[in-house]
What does this fold into?
Amino acid sequence: MDLLQIVGIAGALLTAAGILHAVARHIGVTATLAWIFAMLAVPFAGPIAYFLLAGPRLRRTRRHRRLAGEAVRKAMRRRLGPAGFPAAVLASSPLAQSVAALGTRLTGLPPSAGNLVALRTDNVRTFEEMKQAVLAAERSVWAEYYIVSDDATGRAFLALLAEKARQGVDVRLLYDAVGSSDVPEDGLEALRDSGGRAEAFLPVNPFRRRWAVHLRNHRKLLVVDGERAFLGGMNVGDAYAGGSAAGSTPAERPWRDTNLALSGPAVADLATVFAEDWTFASDERLVPPSVSVPARGGSVVGIVPSGPDQAANAAEQTYFAAVTGARSRCWLTTPYFVPDEGTLRALASAAFRGVDLRVLVPAHGDVAVAQAAGRWYYRALLRAGARVFEYEPAVLHAKTLVVDGAFSLVGSANLDFRSFGLNFEIGAVVFDPEFAAEMEGLFEADLAESREVTRAEVEQRSLPDRLRLGGARLLAPLL
It folds into this structure.
């Protein structure tokens, strides 16, 4: 038997092992078939990619994250006792009650009343507000981001954290090892030398006890003194904070995010999520500070962390429940629209039922294949009676949902396979009609700067265009 035959047999065995493992896993049919196709189409590389990105160690990684969360929650329950369910939610719409109950069961974090919630859509001003909050910190600054870039904004942020650490503030930075692969190492070293802490989430290192390529921490979260918090779609970098000049390519265009500034009891839930992630990444159990005093007349807010450590993904289930339960209108914004079959059917069903379903996506995305895949799905929505809009002034990076004028969601999760299955995400559901009206006003303002996609133009796509979009769609489960 010559070398070529040995290589061929080894490749066949590796492919067979990968296919058998994929079939035995409890993942969706679409993702399973996509991986099988990839392994058959690309010998050696396909199976190796499968075992790197979706291999058996992912179960162990999920379990370790879940155990870290349970340790933090146990310490919190001993100190604070059981949490109640706000009467304001119980008196709201049946759908809002269902969504609140769903989030509570999946995350263990019931919604809390008395929160002050402020909508933030100007990236430059939002980042400046976050900076001022950090500057005013007296006890702690806990920051968790998917991307901390090696640019002026990223370096200034690290320098600011280092300065607060030198002042004796408890400064902790948790960054994703892949999303922040170019994070300035000298900035991290300066932060640590100043007394601060910095940890990478799941470094890609096969010699570590826990590592994973595909499971990423996509959360964007800042908690200051356990009393103020910011969350949404904005990372730390020039593109997000308005540091880059407008240009012709997506990378050069300004970015538009939607974020929330929070104070009140919900901040303690966000601190709990950070503490769980920190405990998992560092093996140092961290217990968050006491709950903030509720504000009179504030909003009811439910914090919805989601991730692959959950038996049922809380972000996916929340979107599904909101869309299927909508009665009058459901307006959502997402930068990456690559829904799985269940979500697509839920959206189409809502439109068929007569719900005013509108989907807002960017006209100029930063990931070409994801945008192409998303455009493939327009046809199903438009045929059902939904309306699709493409936002033109900037790279739209916001992730929001507003339903029936009753409740809203702002967070980090996109409407795609990755956010609903592989990423750790964070969101806030605001059960407040007044805030929902503000969200609807923002959505309508965005539509005024968007182009509506018509059914006629989608039906008349050329054959090359259909092939290009269809090919991108086949990659959707792997994106």
Notes: Residues 57-80 form the longest helix (24 residues).
